[in-house]
Input
Amino acid sequence: MLNIRNISPELEIKARDEINEVQTRITEDISQIRDWIKKQPHLTARIDDQFLLSFLRGCKYSLEKTKSKIDSYYTIRSLSPEIFLNKQINEKTMNLFKLGPFLPLLKPLSTDGCRIHLVRYGHIDFDIFSAEDLMKINVRILDIQLFEDDNVFIGGIQCVVDMSSLSLKKILKFDFVLIKKITIFFEKAAPYRIKGIHLINFPKECLYIINTLSSIMPKKIKKRFILHSSLESLYEYIPMKNLPQEYGGENGNLEDTILYWEKLFLQYEKFFEQDLKYGVNEKLRVGPIVSLESVFGLEGSFRKLEVDYNYKNEWCLRNCTKMAAKVRSLSAELQEIAISELNEDEQKIEDEINAIHHFVAGLPGMTKYQISDQFIISFLRSCKFNNRTVKKKLPNFMTMRKVCPDIFANRMVNEEMIEILKSSVHLPLPNPLDTNSSLIQISNYGNLNLKQYNIYEGIKLLFMMLEIRFLEDDHSSVAGFTFIEDFSHLSFSHMIAMNIGVLTKIMGYLRSGLPYRVKGIHIINAPWFVNGIMGLFRDILPLKMKRRFFIHKTLNDLYEHVPQKYLSKEYDGENGSSEDILKLWETKLLKYKNYFQYDFQFGTEVETSEKDV
Output
């Protein structure tokens, strides 16, 4: 006999019509999931009927999706115990709970409708409570709903986020790693059916943060984000009568709702204590071990291209005719770095280059792509002569031209591009840090006229410059680049245009598709709120990149990494003036006009999209 609640006739009809529930099959479906859990050596999970039924409903009775979500539910809990497992109820917890930061309202939209969640963080004192404290409250209430609320899994959830009194300073208390963990939890692990996330009463200065958060969210959740300029706009989705009395509605008042949930919360104290024994043991998992980086890391920003490298191509590679490589000679200083740091072996260069030529020729769906020996040796150097890395990065590099057209398509050297150049958005300094050190690239997107050009046109120029330097200067592939981002002229409009999504996309290209060695990224002259945002952005970077990401309060801090003399005259340095540098680059860009025009026809014809690379 199943130990589950009976549902109303209205919910029963909706469950049948929308989530494929068949009453006569529920016992069998629950039994199949329970039997599967018992056979997983790494997984210790609840097998209560109501718990498993909630997951089945949240997954529309797809057994495979239910298994995946239950596994992910416990995996993410185990990887982030600070949010999902630290559930002790103490005085601090109850003091925060009584403020009602996260409240499921007493009545759903209708008998078979969505449960309404009200989120209010503006009145919380962030000097006493952390963003992590808030997330722990949210997670506990959601856990209770797994056992108490059928509307959540059949009708869904409409979430109203009231941002009144939520200042930019408070929002910056939410680090992006924490937010990313929560959004991935909802995407991959939680069985809740999110129907809408409605933001109301938001301060204008927080629009940038809202856009940024939206940009890093999974596509499915992003589609459910709705910004309302007035409560009347919200009423189109949630009628006023369904809101609490404090919002002009008839759905109880906040005080009574808090008291209801406080009583229920305390009833679950033993449940939370027992819940700590459930989770995963990765040592016992059959198959690849799941780690914090693989679940929450940024590698998804630029996914690996799977290339079918078949036996025929392998045979061709081994039996190819050897060709003499045509590459530039390195200076003695750079040669020493190439040997000691990049694993370069002069005796093997020709073989390495010929192998990559044949690899490119054998790629499925590849258009005729003419690449020089010099280009390949530069790619090999930037990948430290790791063939596996080259064979991942090179197809990505080619594919980007087709699937990332906002940056890599229509790279026309025309009047508009020259005007962007002359506005000093980018300044490639002529001399490297030292004879054997990295090239320096200064950018100031605040100089870009957003009334005439969009942010991607400025980024497009950056990558065109980097590609030219890569083709011409061996410092780029051997010693790498040092990037200086000057935010001195950055307006609020620039910040909205250059959100975390844009920045993440750039970092994804640099990591997984572009053959440039990033030696350092230095932020200078940033307003206080930008410093905070950049700090959040740094938190979500992979460890290797995070170590090279610096936010400098003063130029003196920068000089510890890039001595003043290596900067341009505008920064009181000796490394050329912007006027002379930009004149040189105007000539250089015009010289490469045909190259960029001709270059876009190359790439892959593999059916893929930007989310795959």
Remarks:
- The longest strand covers residues 194-200.
